[in-house]
């Protein structure tokens, strides 16, 4: 609805009524002769408010516009929309008055997206307006005419300029954002999108004259046709490479990947032929470019449709953005043959739809980035987590423990390390099988994880061994935590054999001291755990390093747990 409102404002009919007639230029024609033929009704009549195609491939075309009589003496502007690529001359009985083109930088009044002739006040309100569409090598496009007073023209011109600038700004912003993602994620999909969108901006900027007015790129004057053709071909090339990766054709449409990539490679070759300045090659490129563009656009549409049907989620984003633009392009091409003369808003709709496509594809790229992040996080979790217990594996726990130990040293916080080993686990495995052993490991890991705080670091060290690093707790608090762990594991009442022997856990405790490394802390906790193993199991002992002459290992403090 918003786009339709814009188009209705841009193309609202505020001009004076016009009647028109035309014929192709013949050798020896003079302005007075054409005006006389118009008065005698020998020219071909047409409706200036509707799109009309005027041949320009030979000597050009004469166009005569007859305003209806008006009782006002306002300054008027004759606008020709959409802006033609070739030049147009305004004549009177004395000869040419003024010639205008998109790349003209001498006029003080320029219509944005159209050509505009400012008519003097002293020119009669009902005097016929004679125009000559000069011969041009560019493809002819249908035009319509509007005669407005200066104020109405300036208002309509400002509306169009606001609309076009906003659309181009959206497309450029989306392209630059994608370029940033391409650099950050090192994903060429975003780079191909950037190339496609920037080329589309150039195509529309050339067709509407935006590159010249208001951007003022005078150095492109005279080469707009070559720039437009090259940008069109490259946009299809970038779109092909984008579709191949974005829609994941190797996975969802492998047979279509080769022709799509070939299209992406072939279009730049056509551009090179067009720029070669060798007559035969230039003509070959001119013949090839339009059929390849049409077939290529259909190929991309078909490939995305097949990929979407087979499960590619990004393909639907592409179809949502690409299909309306393709339909508009087809309708605009049909106008060249004289069809759809009342739909004068198609060119502006193409600009608006380009902004819409940029937003839709950017949403698709954002969805792709989120999917990539989820996949990367999943891979990281799989790499960091023990497959059975879902606790940190030894590598991931060691890396996290190094960081916690460094933080504790910086903040001068106490850190305790628990080394835990299941008692009688080998007997359980031998007598009940590895499946029972796996179930016991899962149950014990869940108990340990639930009993510890979220900021405590718990991991599976290997086999039936676990390690836990407790941050910001002293030795007494650590002993209480470890004792509670012993009791909770024993209360699981996991039978080891037929003699009422239950699974339990032995825990060694070591507190961080000055000069400790992670390895030394683990070693002391491991020694304390072995002391528990040798002295009854199912309880906790704390390793203490005391200052003594011989530096011998001191018997750790112990807290007796429940059970055997």
Automatic annotation (TrEMBL):
Residues spanning the membrane: 160-183, 190-213, 225-243, 255-273, 288-309, 316-337, 349-366
GGDEF domain span: 413-545
Keyword check for Transmembrane helix: yes
Pfam family, one: GGDEF
E.C. numbers: 2.7.7.65
Reaction equation(s) it catalyzes: 2 GTP = 3',3'-c-di-GMP + 2 diphosphate
Entry annotated with the keyword Zinc-finger: no
Record CDD domains: GGDEF
Keywords from the named record: Membrane, Transmembrane, Transmembrane helix
Protein known as: diguanylate cyclase
Source organism per UniProt: Dyella acidiphila
Lineage: Bacteria, Pseudomonadati, Pseudomonadota, Gammaproteobacteria, Lysobacterales
